[in-house]
Amino acid sequence: MFADLKRYMKPEFYKSHSIIQLHYKDKWYKAVIYSIQIRNETDLTCYESEFLLPSEKTEFIHKMKSSSMYETSYLPTSNDGLITLSTCYGSMERMIVQAALICYTND
User: Per the structure, how many domains does the chain have?
Assistant: First the structure.
């Protein structure tokens, strides 16, 4: 479903597509990408979504940012909503693209 995520393997593609748009439940969301990774399919740490403290979310953001294949221009804060998109990459790996929500509309 998200096979086009593999285009983010190339930093040049990221540079011209650092902001993504998603349509979900009748709303359009804009998000800025902050991490692009290849992970073993058994490594589920990139899918964390429940944080008891803002410091836990900040730690997660920094771990994901430092795991990025290359430098991205955005560092989310603990106040940002986060999304993680993934698709198969080879037989035992996943391509992961993570972004921070920056706005949404009802249109």
Answer: 1
Range of the domain at 7: 3-105
Distance from the Cα of residue 74 to its chain's centroid: 11
Give the integer Cα–Cα distance in Å for 105 and 107. 5
For residue 31, the domain's CATH number is 2.40.260.10
Distance in angstroms (rounded) separating the CA atoms of residues 96 and 85: 6
pTM passes above 0.85: yes
pLDDT tens, residue by residue, 28-87 = 999 999 999 999 999 999 999 999 999 999 999 999 999 999 999 999 999 999 999 999
Cα 40 to Cα 79, 85, 88, 94: the distances in Å are: 28, 15, 10, 6
What are the structure tokens assigned to 41, written together?
């399919």
